[in-house]
Amino acid sequence: MATTTRDGTDEAIERLREEHRGELIRPEDPGYDEARAIYNGMIDRHPRLIARCGDVADVIAAVNFGREHDLETAIRSGGHNGAGLATVDDGLVIDLSEMTGIRVDPGAETVHVEPGCTWGDVDHATHAFGLATVSGVISTTGVGGLTLGGGHGYLSRKYGLTIDNLLSADVVLADGRLVRASEDEHPDLFWALRGGGGNFGVVTSFEFRLHPVETVVAGPLFWPIEELGTTMKWYREWLPQAPEDVYAFYLTAEVPGDPFPEELHGEKVCGLMWCYLGPEDRIDELMEPARDVAEPLFEHVDAMPYPALQGMFDDLYPPGDQWYWKGDFVDELTDEAIAEHERFAAVPTPKSTMHLYPVDGAVHRVGEDETAWSYREANWSMVIAGVDADPAQRDRIADWARDYWAALHPHSAGGSYVNFMMDEGHDRVRATYADNYERLREVKARYDPDNFFRVNQNVEPAT
Q1: 432-442 exposure pattern, b = at least 16 Cβ within 10 A, e = fewer
Q2: What does the pLDDT look like over 395-410, one tens digit per residue?
Q3: What pTM did the predictor assign?
């Protein structure tokens, strides 16, 4: 075996090239800075080697290489992880972004997806058949990270979490073996993959259940920010009682430029982002209570293809912005919590925002211990995101997000959606997995006893 790459030898890299058909990128190579960049511009890390994989054989070779040479190893899918866990300093990045195969089976209503795909790729492929599965709200998000963290979005009240629609996964383990995880094969691993993050291996293929989704009725409604207390108190009562065809996440924001009316540009607002799966002619009836509780400043809710809704925020949030986010699960929006929302609601920069995503309905019909996702009784998944294109705003947006979260955390359920966490330490990870944490440790010990996959929201193996 070649000497360790920690000594910087060329021999080890050349031996890897014999087994790895994809591109191997080192700091001295052209394109290195572009290859190491991820979605969050606040993250600036310099890996020793980036192994761009074209197929499962490449993934196996890269995992074996990282293990044999004791390299800290990160797994990159879409690169959207806010904490920067898709990359690492002075280690190995296994880059899956070239693995973008998709195969739709319209008869079975399933889709097989490789880990380099974004949700926009999946939506494009499945929409041709009038089908979709549950994903997030930005189409450039990678399939791998969102799924393994649990996954929630516009379809969640009707069809559950992304993991509730995961049927199987092909996984390269820390020892280089490829296994299939499903209800029937390695069911313990399948349980852990559904919410346990990247702790257990590299998923090289996901199989999802699809649902009939083609045209949705969707778009924003804004109220003046001064109406936050009134509208949030109404929202906490209205949303859980609404039909599951109705999805609306609550937001605070600053109105951007086009396509919004010029007189609203820069206005601080609160509001709803709608997605309705039912008959178009019922939307006015369903929206009427929102218009009655406070007079909207603006609304534009219309029928559109589901992929158009999924891509609606893409231009507002391109790769390279500075991001600092904090999250929590929320059971109840108490008057005390709403008062704190009012205190912090004026966002510090035009792209900063707070969202309350509904995770009730179908999400509640799965038991707490059926998957690794531990907060099945929560009604909302909250994210506070400080965002700006200018690195000079880094401290300002981070301070706002941390202070806002600290004020609200005592009113939360205690844990967070792992995809909304920064690098927050072991206690925070443990709180997020709650009663499922010890079981996750046991599965980790079975499939990754040496904690090779540790660049993530890490679950340490049981001893």
Answers
A1: bbeebbebbbe
A2: 999 999 999 999 999 9
A3: 0.96
